[in-house]
Design brief:
The protein has 172 residues and is mostly helical. The protein has a single domain, classed as Tetracycline Repressor, domain 2. Helix content is 76%, strand content 0%. The chain is elongated and about 60 Å long. InterPro entries: DNA-bd_HTH_TetR-type_CS, Homeodomain-like_sf, HTH_TetR, Tet_transcr_reg_TetR-rel_C_sf.
């Protein structure tokens, strides 16, 4: 994860990755086959790493309170945030091996946010007039964008930015 986060996918060979992580090229090829399969394993691992923690957080606090807490946590894992940002940028190209995975990941994320917003509405914590589809798209874009801003300027308070937007959605 760290090697892809620091150097991206396109700038590395499987041999360079093996050297960077201190294993032989042969061992890496034996376990993953090629760079594309290694990338797929890294992305899946990234998605799985905190899935349970986030699910519990969202269940306990609801989306509007949990998102700023997630952003506070994300500020403690800059390498993973950089990996996400670099992979999303590189995977815009339809020929990139992670393109379909990233498109699916983004769709799953937006769908989950929309579902959580619906839960917020049912719990009476969301303004009645909020368009759930639009708000989900805005939140996903805000999260991805503020993380990119933070990578460039660590003084950006990601949690505060997301908290402010969440408060605007909240039923007063």
């Amino acid at each position: 994860m760290a090697v892809f986060a620091e150097q991206g996918y396109n700038n590395l060979s499987l041999r360079q990755i093996a050297d960077a992580v201190g294993v032989s090229h042969t061992l890496l090829r034996h376990h993953f086959g090629n760079k594309e399969k290694l990338l797929e394993a890294v992305l899946k691992r990234r998605e799985e790493t905190e899935a349970e923690w986030r699910a519990t957080l969202f269940a306990e606090h609801g989306l509007l309170e949990a998102l700023p807490l997630v952003m506070e946590h994300n500020a403690t894992i800059p390498g993973l945030i950089q990996l996400d940002t670099v992979m999303r940028a590189e995977a815009i190209n339809p020929d990139h091996p992670a393109h379909d995975y990233i498109v699916g990941l983004t769709q799953r994320f937006r769908t989950a946010v929309r579902t959580d917003l619906e839960g917020e509405r049912k719990a009476g914590r969301l303004h009645k007039g909020v368009d759930l589809e639009l708000a989900a798209t805005q939140l996903v874009a805000l999260i991805e964008g503020v993380q990119a801003e933070w990578l460039l300027d660590r003084s950006v308070d990601m949690a505060a930015v997301v908290r402010d937007f969440a408060e605007r959605l909240r039923h007063s």
